[in-house]
Amino acid sequence: MDTRYPALITKAPEGGFYVRFVDLDEAFTEGDSMEEALFNAAEVLTLTLEGRLSEGIEVPPPSRSVRGARYIAPDAKTQGVLLLRAARGDRSLADLARALETSWPQAKRLEDPHHWPSLKTLDRAVRVLGKRLVLSIE
């Protein structure tokens, strides 16, 4: 699963750039330069997704093949949460906790964007879900 979200970037009439995320109406930002706009976009995307996850609001999957869009990734913690939730699918947190031989609160922490699980813990969680952890640096 790819956790990068499409963002449309337009030049602002007064200078700089506006950034708007296609799938998340509340996620938008700007920057004086393209570099600043892209940095701010990653920050606002992370904050928006963290907020939705924390408040139990649905997180839509990223749209694909949006013409003219730049695809932006949230921070690694938020990516981990999104990927683990996708891997879990319809399986309950209680099922995950049992498979990990841990408590429900410990399993729930794995899907908390404010918690930073170790790679060992994350790898173990995805393995019990029949997946494997793959890391990438861009």
Number of strands: 4
**Largest pleated sheet:** 4 strands, antiparallel
Structural class: alpha+beta
Q: What is the chains' assembly state?
A: single chain
**Share of helix, binned:** 40-55%
Distance between the termini: 16 Å
Strand order of the largest sheet: 3-2-1-4
H/E series, N to C?
EEEHEHHHH
Pick out the low-confidence regions. none
Average predicted confidence as pLDDT? 93
List the helices and strands and how they pair.
Layout: E1 5-11, E2 17-21, E3 28-31, H1 34-55, E4 70-72, H2 76-88, H3 93-100, H4 104-109, H5 119-128
Antiparallel strand pairs: 1-2, 1-4, 2-3
Task: Walk me through what this model shows.
It is built from 5 helices and 4 strands. It starts with a strand and ends in a 10-residue tail after the last helix. The protein has helices at 34-55, 76-88, 93-100, 104-109, 119-128; strands spanning 5-11, 17-21, 28-31, 70-72. The chain is α+β, with helices and mostly antiparallel strands.
